[in-house]
Every structure is written in structure tokens, then in C-alpha cells.
Amino acid sequence: MYILFFVCVLGVISTIPLHFLSVEHLKLREKYGKKKGTKIGEILGLISGWGFFNFWMGIWASPQPRFTVPVLQNLSISLPFIDFSVPLLHLATCILFLTPGALLAINGVKKTTLRVAETHRTERIVTEGAYSIVRHPQYLGGLLAHVGISFLLSARHSLLFTPLMVVLVFLISRKEEEELVREFGKEYEDYKEKVPMLTPRL
User: Fold this and answer.
1) Spatial distance between the Cα atoms of 33 and 43, rounded to a whole number of angstroms
2) DSSP states of the chain as a string?
3) Which CATH number fits domain 3-194: 2.60.40, 1.25.40, 1.20.120, 2.60.120?
4) Which of 32, 90, 146, 169 could form an S-S bond across to 151 if both were Cys, CB 3.0 to 4.6 Å?
5) Are 146 and 56 in contact (CB under 8 A)?
6) What contacts 43, CB < 8 A, 6 or more positions away?
7) pLDDT per residue over 94-121, tens digit each?
8) What are the residue boundaries of the structural domains of the chain, listed by start?
9) Residues sharing a CB contact under 8 Å with residue 119, sequence separation 6 or more, in sequence order
10) pTM for the complete prediction?
């Protein structure tokens, strides 16, 4: 009944090996030469990055059971012209998570450029802006947005998928950092000492 949801979950998971391979910049250059290895890494990064994101959106939007928090559930907002209503509490929760998530993700892309975000390949360590808060602002932003959109759409399976999404994002972040340490050495190690991975310090 919920086959599209599970297809999207499998799609997200299936992009992880490609993502891991795309960030192995040094290995790809050693194996294929600098120019070809870099190009292969960028292509794998584009495929895995956009695949991951598109399947993630599919998890939010796919047909699945709807839930309602049993507080103020009779208060809702209906959108004109389309058959869609959202409980006010869900909308408030969405705004609470989606706003900082979007700000973090957008700031992260602005600081590194869209090309770096798409290809998972950078020429320098970025430490300012959102990168001074967490080492992976785009991933943290994505997780916050995931919770917000799950509430907006009242998507039960999507919300229940959150812990697995956290694990996948952690594995991706750790793999990227292993490769960044290989590429940038002490510079990235020092950055890791100062800034947390995904949980901002209070």
C-alpha cells in the first residue's frame, strides 16, 4: 500500500555507497589521474547528492498514514483552491524546525558555493558563517527541515523515519570528514576540535 514510501527509503539508502565513493578524491585521482579522477568524483557527487535529495523529498510526499497531535487538533488552516488543511500545532512545529533548518542549509551553500555542495569537493576549509556553528550545516538543516515538513504534511512514516535519517546523515558526515582529514590534515583536525559535527554547542 505504501510502496512509493519504501521505494524512496531504499533510494536514499542506495545513494550512500555512491556518495562515499564520490568523496574519495585522493583515491580517485591516484587510480584515474588528477583530471579524470576529479571529474569522476564530481559526477558521482552530482548523482548521489541529487538522488539523495530527490528520494528524501519523495519520503515526505509519498502516500502514507497521516497523524495528528491530539492537542488543539480542531484548529487548522485550509488552503484555498487545493484540498489541503494543516492543524495549527503542526504548522507552528513546522515553522519552528523548518526556519532554522532552511537558514542553516542556505547559509552553508552560500559559504561553500552550490558547486561544492553538489559535488562534495572543496579546495579549502570553510569555518565562517554556519560552519562556525556546526561542521555540517547543510545536513543539520536538512534534518530540521525533515521534521518540519513531516509535521506540515502530517506524514507519519516520514516522521518515524527520522532516527534512521539521523544515522544516515551521521555516516555520510563521518565519511566526508575522514576524507577531509586525508586532504587537509591538521587544518581540518583543528577545525574539528573547535566546532561540533551536527549538534551546536549552547
Assistant:
1) 15
2) --HHHHHHHHHHHHHHHHHHHHT-HHHHHHHH-HHHHHHHHHHHHHHHHHHHHHHHHHHHHS---B---SSSTT-EEEETTTTEEEEHHHHHHHHHHHHHHHHHHHHHHHHH-HHHHHHT--SS---SGGGGT-S-HHHHHHHHHHHHHHHHTTBHHHHHTHHHHHHHHHHHHHHHHHHHHHHHTHHHHHHHHHS-SSS---
3) 1.20.120
4) 90
5) yes
6) none
7) 999 999 999 999 999 999 888 888 777 8
8) 3-194
9) 22, 41, 42, 45, 46, 49
10) 0.90
Match 542506495 to its residue by C-alpha cell: 14
C-alpha cell at 50: 541529487
